[in-house]
Write a structure and sequence with these properties.
The complex is a heterodimer of chains A (about 325) and B (about 300). Chain A has 2 domains: about 140 residues, Rossmann fold; about 140 residues, Response regulator (Rossmann fold), CATH 3.40.50. Helices cover about 45% and strands about 20% of the residues of chain A. Chain A is built from 12 helices and 13 strands. Chain B has a single domain, classed as Orthogonal Bundle (ABC transporter involved in vitamin B12 uptake, BtuC), CATH 1.10.3470. Chain B starts with a helix and ends with a helix. Classes of the chains: A alpha/beta (about 325), B mainly alpha (about 300). Chains A and B meet through helix 1, strand 2, helix 3 and helix 4 of A and helix 1, helix 9 and helix 11 of B.
Chain lengths: ~325, ~300
């Protein structure tokens, strides 16, 4: 028994040493930097092209408003590497640094921040969230940018390329709140237009190719919403689409760069800038009229190479405001 | 590390210590590598969140979640014992099936609970430590109760049979113990624990998400092994204590890794730093032996 006690004592003192060292470390850095720099903490669920783009836009907006990291502002950034428990731990850690504004990039990150932000009365800004109402991110203290796409315009956009569109397949992960929300709305829009919508579900990026292959020959076009899983595996969908000569429509510029035919969507960088502008307004104590911003400029992106490969011409109605993109090498 | 991060790591560690105790039951006591855990953790969260939103009392919702977890463990055990499937495969199959079932239960991939009644604001509100943490004491109480139940259960005749079935199935059978029944019982209890942790996670974080189970088994195993490496585990009491301390220490390892940004590391280095700190922590027993020899 005595021996056990000794071992427990050793481990407890070890833990105490480590935490003492860390407590010291943070208080040192806090003392050395100027005391009045406002602190912005960013929490992101996973490293991912669209989310990174939003973060870049946000930092850009802060910079152009005169908030430069290390000089006029302090910015901390944490990435949960896809793990929700880590995201929860990040939220606690960031709340403890008592930031002026907390920023959640993606739905789960914003959700983990919500409870700590509310209990510590820290304003929360979110971005890359499609349905803030379903995610319960509606609160006087919460501001953000919603990226829900008007879906009727998505169908009209596909009709520009394929006038007699009858069946569309949508590839998505049923485990993502953003996507299920989009698909539900798309289903209603398709019914109105007499279009058959066939869902192909992939739970992991490695399942996406099989989901795409299951559709070849049965549909007129493939549509990919802002789905993290499907967009991450865009290259494998492009492969299936090009071998089956199927037009592939996406919702973001990055997918078109990766070889999708066209997308009518938002510029992620711009959305990030809008979230950044919200942060700036909070820092300047300006009033924000609308807590959730969901009206953004839509852009049409078309991949020239894919267009040629499919033997299609650019629809005349689009000619003016289209942004042409060549496939990246 | 600041106070809120410190208590945050403690809270999460306490929640995951319940998973670690469940894993101890299946992996260590029954020698059954049960991968159901990755599915039963979000199952607990999904059932609990759905029941609360349906208007059920949070305590009942938590108990229903445990029942659901027990059922999932029982199914894995049935596949392993009755259908003679490889233990690993039985767990994997239940785990992947639970992904779809969780989506069915919630009707969507993510269910928000913020503003709803939870056991913490309904039941345990008197145990809040003002301005530090509203969750720490309630979680400590829950973990103590759950740990005591596990301890007392493993000391009963039934629990003794369970341990016997795990350490030597042939011998247990010779003594008249139905080892298959024991596996069914053990996995049910183990997954009820895991689902309880999932239900607590959903109630403390304010949402349930279908993807929240990924990696649960890995983190829980890391916690169990860390605890075993640092603490003695000769008796059941010590082993359960090691599970709790291991889970808490593992959360502190992640906290330290999160703070490593200040040493010029990137946010994306998090998992690597966690792994390196774990390797260092595992060297502590060797160091201890070394000093013992020197003395």
């Amino acid at each position: 028994m005595k021996k056990n006690l000794k071992i427990i004592l050793i481990s407890v003192s070890l833990a105490a040493c480590i935490s003492f060292f860390l407590f010291n470390k943070t208080s040192d850095t806090a003392a050395s930097s100027q005391p009045h720099l406002p602190l912005i903490s960013l929490s992101q669920i996973i490293g991912h092209r669209s989310l990174d783009e939003e973060r870049r836009g946000l930092l850009d907006a802060l910079k152009s408003a005169g908030y430069i990291d290390g000089k006029t502002i302090k910015i901390t950034y944490q990435n949960a590497q896809g793990n929700l428990a880590t995201a929860a731990q990040i939220a606690k850690m960031q709340a403890g640094q008592s930031p002026d504004v907390m920023v959640g990039i993606s739905t789960p990150s914003a959700q983990t921040l919500l409870s700590v932000a509310t209990s510590h009365a820290i304003p929360l800004v979110f971005t890359a969230v499609t349905n803030p109402v379903d995610a319960k991110l509606v609160n006087d203290n919460v501001f953000g940018v919603s990226d829900a796409l008007p879906l009727a315009s998505q169908i009209a956009h596909m009709r520009e390329f394929i006038p007699n569109l009858k069946t569309i397949c949508v590839i998505y992960n049923a485990g993502e709140l953003n996507s299920t929300h989009v698909v539900r709305a798309l289903n209603i829009a398709c019914e109105k237009e007499n279009i058959v919508l066939i869902p192909a579900i992939a739970a992991k990026t490695s399942d996406v190719a099989a989901a795409a292959q299951s559709l070849a020959g049965r549909v007129d076009a493939i549509y990919v919403p802002n789905d993290n899983t499907a967009v991450s595996a865009m290259a494998s969908i492009v492969q299936v689409a090009s071998s089956a000569k199927l037009p592939l429509f996406a919702s973001d510029m990055g997918s078109v760069e990766n070889g999708a035919l066209a997308a009518r969507g938002y510029d992620r960088f711009q959305l990030g800038q809008k979230a950044g502008a919200l942060v700036v307004r909070i820092l300047r104590h300006e009033k924000i009229e609308k807590n959730i911003d969901n009206s953004h400029d839509l852009h049409v992106y078309v991949n020239e190479k894919t267009l040629k490969m499919l033997g299609m011409d650019l629809p005349k109605s689009l000619n003016k405001d289209v942004i042409l993109i060549g496939t990246r090498k | 590390m600041n106070v809120i991060q410190f208590t945050g790591a403690l809270e999460l560690g306490l929640i995951y210590s319940i998973v670690a105790m469940g894993i101890y039951l299946s992996f260590r006591t029954l020698q059954f590598p049960d991968l159901t855990v990755d599915g039963s953790f979000p199952l607990g969260a999904a059932i609990c969140a759905s029941c609360i939103l349906y208007g059920m009392h949070p305590l009942t919702a938590t108990l229903v979640a445990m029942l659901g977890g027990a059922l999932s463990g029982f199914i894995t055990a049935l596949m392993a014992t009755r259908l003679k499937m490889l233990n690993l495969l039985a767990g994997i199959l239940t785990m992947i099936a639970l992904y779809s079932i969780n989506l069915r239960i919630m009707g969507r991939p993510n269910m928000a609970l913020s503003g709803e009644k939870t056991i913490f604001n309904e039941f345990f509100s008197c145990f809040a430590i003002p301005s530090v943490s509203t969750l720490l004491l309630p979680l400590l109480i829950i973990v103590t109760i759950v740990g005591l139940i596990a301890l007392l259960f493993l000391r009963t005749e039934l629990g003794l049979g369970l341990r016997a079935a795990g350490s030597n199935a042939k011998m247990a059978r010779a003594k008249g113990i139905n080892d298959q029944r024991m596996i069914q019982l053990g996995l049910s209890v183990s997954n009820a624990y895991v689902a309880l942790a999932g239900a607590l996670f959903a109630q403390t974080q304010g949402f349930a998400d279908v993807s929240m189970g990924t990696g649960t088994i890995v983190y829980a195993l890391a916690a169990v092994i860390l605890g075993e490496a640092l603490l003695p585990t000769r008796t059941i009491k010590q082993a359960l204590l090691a599970c709790v301390l291991g889970a808490i220490l593992y959360r502190f390892v992640i906290s330290i890794a999160l703070n490593s940004n200040e040493f010029g590391l990137q946010a994306s280095d998090l998992n690597l730093v966690t792994a390196v700190i774990m390797v260092l922590a595992m060297q502590v027993p060797a160091l201890k032996r070394h000093f013992k020899v020197m003395n």
